[in-house]
Amino acid sequence: MESEMALICTETSDGIGSITLNNPRKHNALSTALIEEICAVMEQMRQDDVRVVILRAPAGAKVFSAGHDIGELPTNGRDPLTYNDPLRLLVRTIEHFPAPVIAMVEGSVWGGACELVMSCDLIVAAEDSTFAITPAKLGVPYNISGIQRFLKAGGMTLCVEMLFTAQPSSARRLLDRGIVNHAVPRDQLEIVTKGIAGQIVKNSPLVVSLLKEELRLLSAAHNLGPETFERVQAMRREIYDSEDYQEGICAFHEKRSPQFRGR
Ligand code: YXS
User: Fold this and answer.
1) Partner of 79 at 20 to 30 A CA spacing, among 208, 222, 232, 239?
2) 224 in a domain, yes or no?
3) Phi and psi angles of residue 76, each rounded to the nearest 5 degrees, phi first
4) Closest CA to 111 of 230, 249, 6
5) Structural domain boundaries enclosing 233
6) 42 with 19: CB under 8 angstroms?
7) In a mutational test of the pocket of ligand 1, which residue from 7, 21, 27, 256 has the highest number of ligand atoms less than 8 Å from its CB?
8) Is residue 258 part of a domain?
9) Cβ(143)–Cβ(236) under 8 Å?
10) Final residue in a domain of this structure, among 180, 201, 222
11) How far is CA 13 from CA 2, 66, 119, 188, 252, in A?
12) What is the Å distance from ligand 1's center to 5 Cα?
């Protein structure tokens, strides 16, 4: 069964649900509207007892997703990445979905879209796809749970380099670090992904669902103490109240390189 919403396309067959990001005009930027469509269709797939979800871009996409919709980042002194930010809701929806979600990646992945992909249970990527985590480039004070997810997925060494440089890393490098499950030629991407999904669908959905929740609970990093959390939040507030934060967003809209002054 196929259906077309404004910004995504969905299909469900043989227990496998497929969600295709489909807003090419903005390179699948993770706008509130796009995220709301994904969450709505995942709720329907949950009710339909879908056993695996594949999250993808259209075949041949140059950009898997350009990350947060920069036009939706607040510039009035509000925290740009709060607990109720749409991307945070989507990441939690994926983590709590009662079946595996596989990210099938081709093209370039930017910013918050890297966190989206890394919140999925498996990642099958075209070997020529790239991943760039970009808060430093845009002057955005990334939030704690997002940094924790990057750390859990990639480890400190790779995270430090990806976060400090904001430069793209290859799927091959992420495969070597165990972040990506498979890096394959683009023309094998769908068959490899569907093959894994087919293997999972054959297994007990109750046990697979239990295993997913057990793995999530057991892998959850230790929680921060209240004082540490408040100190980091105070640090983040200084940044999203800073001129650099305004400069990062302004430079993007003006299609020029940002001139960060560290204030
Ligand atoms: O100017 P028009 O109206 O034609 O629209 C352009 C872009 O403005 C728009 N667009 C976006 N709009 C909102 N949010 C975005 N993230 C975004 N990215 C692109 O799409 C239209 C076509 O883009 P254009 O002309 O640049 O296409 P291109 O083929 O030359 O370049 C494709 C990209 C993806 C390399 C380029 O669009 C780009 O660098 N986009 C920004 C990628 C990025 O830095 N994303 C991080 C977003 S902020 C985020 O995720 C977190 C808050 S954080 O930074 O903390 O991780």
Assistant:
1) 222
2) yes
3) -115, 30
4) 249
5) 205-253
6) yes
7) 27
8) no
9) yes
10) 201
11) 9, 28, 24, 20, 41
12) 22
- CA dihedral 110→36→70→107, nearest 10 degrees, is 20
Residue 41 pLDDT: 97
Return the DSSP state at 223.
P
Task: Confirm whether 92 is domain-assigned.
Answer: yes
Identity of the amino acid at 144: I
User: Of the candidates 112, 135, 10, 12, which has an alpha carbon nearest to the alpha carbon of residue 64?
Assistant: 112
CA 89 to chain centre: 11
> d(Cα 260, Cα 247) in Å, to the nearest integer?
7
In whole angstroms, what is the distance from residue 131 CA to residue 168 CA?
Answer: 5
- Ligand 1 centroid distance, CA of 168 (Å): 14
Ligand 1 atom nearest 113 alpha carbon: 50
Q: Give DSSP secondary structure letters for 124-165.
A: EEETT-EEE--HHHHT----HHHHHHHHHHHHHHHHHHHHHH
Nearest CA to ligand 1 atom 3: 26
* Residues classed as catalytic: 68, 112, 142
**Is residue 27 in contact with ligand 1, taking CB distance under 6 Å?**
yes
Indicate whether 216 and 249 sit together in one domain: yes
Answer yes or no: do 225 and 191 share one domain: no
Which residues in the chain come in under a pLDDT of 70? 1-4, 221-222
pTM, entire model: 0.91
pLDDT at 208: 87
**Do the beta carbons of residue 8 and residue 34 sit within 8 Å?**
yes
Ligand 1 centroid to residue 178 C-alpha, Å? 27
In this structure, what token pair is assigned to residue 106?
A: 């081709």
